[in-house]
Amino acid sequence: MRNRPPPRRPGPRRRPQGPRPVRPDAVGGGVAVAIPEGPRPPVELPAALTVKELSERLDVSAPNIIRELLQNGIIASINQTIDYETAAIVASDLGIEVHEQSVEDVSQVLDQTEDSPEDLAPRPPVVTVMGHVDHGKTSLLDAIRKTRVTAGEAGGITQHIGAYQVEVNDQRVTFLDTPGHEAFTAMRARGASVTDIAILVIAADDGVMPQTREAANHAKAAGVPIIVALNKIDRPDANPDRIKQQLTELGMVVEDYGGDVVTVPVSARTGEGIDTLLEMVLFVAEMGNYKANPHRSGVGTVIEAKLDKARGPVATILVEKGTVHVGDVAIAGSYAGRIKALFNDKGKRIRQAEPSMPAEVLGLDGVPGAGDRFQVVADEKTARALAQATRRSAEAQAASGAREASIEAIMEGIRTGALKDLNLVLKADVRGSLEALSSSIQTLAEHEQVSREIRTRIIHGDTGNVTESDVMLAAAAKGLVIAFNVRVEPGARKAAETQGVDIRSYNVIYHLTEDIEKLLSGMLEPEYHEVIQGEVEIRQVFKIGRTHAAAGCIVTSGTIPRNAQIRVFRGGVQLFQGRLESLRRFKDDVREVATGYECGISVEGFIDFKEGDVLQAFTREVVT
Ligand code: GDP
Ligand code: MG
Fold first, then answer.
1. How far is residue 419's CA from residue 503's CA, in Å, rounded to a whole number?
2. Which of 406, 417, 462, 605 has a 20 to 30 Å separation from 425 between CA atoms?
3. Which alpha helices (H) appear in 378-423, and where do they start and end?
4. Which residue has its alpha carbon closest to ligand 1 atom 2?
5. pLDDT tens across 409-446, in order?
6. Hey, whose CA ends up nearest to atom 24 of ligand 1?
């Protein structure tokens, strides 16, 4: 309790550190007034804040701040959020020194309190399936899911997201459908160790292969227990004993040979051994005694994320601790938002997600990357500030990041002879094209190798979209990603940017081999790719005569640059694509407009705007 009554007429509000200075004559007089200070220490400002907050932090009245903003051509209300740059301009106009809160400072906002043991409750184990390509990882995950689908869940077999939960003897187990140990490692590299148990799949008719070794090493490095599934035992040429021997050579001594490595013979095709495998998972999980505190704000990891035309950014997260609720405000990597909806692995709407539960999250203002941190925060203000700070640090990292896997760098390596291997990660739509591609590349490589001392190696080949793990693998091998008739997932794009990896897309084999030939001769041009810059929503349409129209918009995410291309969406459907013709704020042409601001946009060749339409702005940039 204070022993002085509050001042009757408070002076300007200050927030002095430490004890409040009082005038000597005020002591005992009952009135405490802040005395003017000497030079003020710089004021710390977050990456984004409202005008009101800025006024409080700078100790300048809100109308004065608003006036300063106006003089800089920015019309803002008291509750409007402005970014650090804008705030800094206002501050410097007012003669106040400011600096931006560093990411570390901002991250202190995060709830990092340790959970006390009595708050911890058992949670389902999280299992990742790893192994060599074609040994049956996907089939095994399918088989597990199918044996666990109850009659009530008819139609629930279709997988909606890259993770699912099944019940085994009344206990839940979470399976992560990562495309491989690369993703696992990429996530680990980002500090996300989401897996408790690894299932190492080895085809009993094939044996230990390079990726089997890699996967085993990745799991060992992460310190997670490994259960070996000897798959395809239905095959007549299956030879489990041979594999057990190979495992011993790998330093993994199986139980039959007196070691502690558990092996379970299974067939993803017939379902044989699947139950035993699951029991083994439960057994290992029991020893692991996995726990988390469900009664705190949710924390998790982004497993995968995409931009859905109708629903916007959709992130699949795995909750690690706490509970995530619809309506919570969260950050995911460098994006933020209020959670509009949550869906479980069966595509069913849920209200909340508890530890070890995978869930789809709607409401983020952008597409985060796999392995990004997901965290519920106090409010949208904090979320935005955190997201922006994360983005800045990611950008700084990208700017200084290694560019070793760019086309230029690879060609430089080829020209100078420093590069001995051209490492390729191949992703194709179907197995047939994958095989065709591999063999043409191999043929070409053998042909080229005569004249050049470069080996072309396919370090990873698989069907499916280009994922972040493909990019991470290419990055690690200083190689290229080749996408044949498949999409590049947003997370992969982002990873490619930060890691400096080239992704080249093809739909004609001949074009691909031609490019590789050019690459080997050091003559390949860089490829352009698309970068989504931001989105606006149309609030009002202005017809200008018969031939022109401008859309009065509000920027809902990102930034709209003057040089952008625009896609017009209505109800999630694309109507048009063309060049941004003019970008204005209050009759002035501007270079760019940031989130939260209004602007006027016209698009070359399109005038049929409607209120509610969404305009997406993107640019084309060289893949470097
Ligand atoms: P992944 O690359 O490890 O995900 O392997 P897939 O699950 O895609 O399987 C590769 C191929 O092996 C596919 O053609 C599957 O049908 C086949 N396969 C997977 N498991 C089994 C099995 O238990 N028995 C047999 N006979 N074939 C299998
Ligand atoms: Mg697979």
1. 19
2. 417
3. 380-400, 407-416
4. 134
5. 777 777 676 777 788 888 988 878 888 888 888 777 66
6. 232
